[in-house]
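Researcher: Sequence recovery benchmark, item below. Answer with residues only.
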């Protein structure tokens, strides 16, 4: 079968819509294939360009199709929707994916390696543990406050308060049993979280890209592994601005005629990675007081001029550009001290 030029696939769990395009971009076929037959179907096709939405299981199928000799391109899902014509169904979705991939300025998502997906999975599991622990902690603080027991901020302070409450007579027998159960749950979550953090630390020390990223101030184990899982070596971005735009850290721009305005950051792209980078920027900002290197001087200047929160986002934007520069050059980041 050599009459096709492009193959677009609408992914699902059990059935897949496979649409083949000719050299002149006319539709040759658009049919449904079961999951069991998809491997055989794609293995028999001559090497061609295969396009899919960057969504559920796309990276797995991308790696599989690349083994068959195909060139795989993943289209961001938000760029496919405008091309859907008529009713929403698998056949129209497959056509829309193919047409969206033909746009000259389309930016595709790179297929992740198994190693990147391992790290990404660990981060998602870690985020669930953190979120669950936070919910339980907040509820426990509220319940204990009804008995006049108040803890200072922090997980360690909460554990100390629960221990003291269990050993005192401030709680009834009924409530003490439930708080003891909650305490065991918190300790279990804490142990699970530590185990995931240790795995991420070992992986960060194993991969050269992660070690390179950790030379940047504000980039530790969590941020380094999250960045590697998301973009790999970063070669899909032509400039530092492209990476910052993808992160959603650049101002929203609106222009019409002679009027041009900028607003708040766009918040596009990877939400988790942007959040972690802002946290890293906030930690770096707290450590920059009184330092005389060029980055710390810049941080303190913009903080004084724009305030804490805006300066924190601006620093996250700057860190994104530094990350791209470090990855593109393959060199460690070095601070330059400003002589008085």
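Model:
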């Amino acid at each position: 079968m050599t009459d096709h030029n492009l193959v677009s696939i609408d992914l699902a769990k059990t059935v897949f819509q496979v649409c083949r395009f000719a050299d002149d971009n006319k539709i040759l076929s658009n049919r449904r294939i079961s999951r069991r037959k998809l491997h055989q179907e794609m293995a028999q096709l001559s090497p061609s360009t295969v396009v899919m939405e960057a969504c559920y299981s796309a990276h797995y199928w991308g790696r599989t199709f690349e083994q068959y000799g195909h060139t795989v391109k993943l289209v961001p899902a938000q760029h496919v929707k405008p091309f859907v014509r008529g009713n929403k169904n698998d056949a129209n979705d497959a056509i829309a994916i193919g047409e969206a991939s033909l746009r000259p300025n389309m930016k595709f998502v790179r297929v992740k390696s198994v190693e990147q997906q391992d790290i990404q999975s660990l981060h998602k599991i870690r985020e669930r543990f953190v979120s669950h622990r936070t919910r339980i902690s907040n509820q426990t603080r509220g319940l204990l406050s009804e008995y006049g027991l108040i803890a200072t901020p922090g997980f360690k302070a909460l554990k100390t308060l629960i221990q003291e409450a269990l050993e005192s007579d401030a709680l009834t027998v009924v409530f003490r049993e439930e708080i003891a159960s909650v305490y065991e749950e918190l300790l279990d979550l804490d142990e699970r979280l530590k185990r995931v953090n240790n795995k991420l630390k070992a992986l960060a020390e194993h991969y050269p890209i992660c070690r390179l990223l950790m030379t940047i101030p504000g980039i530790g184990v969590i941020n380094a592994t999250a960045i590697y899982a998301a973009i790999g070596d970063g070669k899909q971005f032509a400039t530092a601005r492209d990476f910052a735009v993808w992160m959603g850290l650049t101002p929203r721009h609106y222009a019409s005629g002679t009027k041009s305005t900028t607003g708040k950051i766009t918040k596009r792209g990877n939400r988790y990675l942007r959040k972690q980078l802002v946290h890293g920027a906030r930690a770096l900002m707290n450590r920059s007081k009184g330092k005389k290197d060029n980055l710390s001087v810049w941080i303190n200047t913009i903080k004084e001029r724009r305030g804490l929160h805006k300066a924190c986002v601006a620093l996250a934007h700057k860190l994104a550009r530094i990350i791209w520069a470090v990855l593109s050059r393959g060199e460690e980041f070095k601070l330059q001290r400003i002589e008085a």
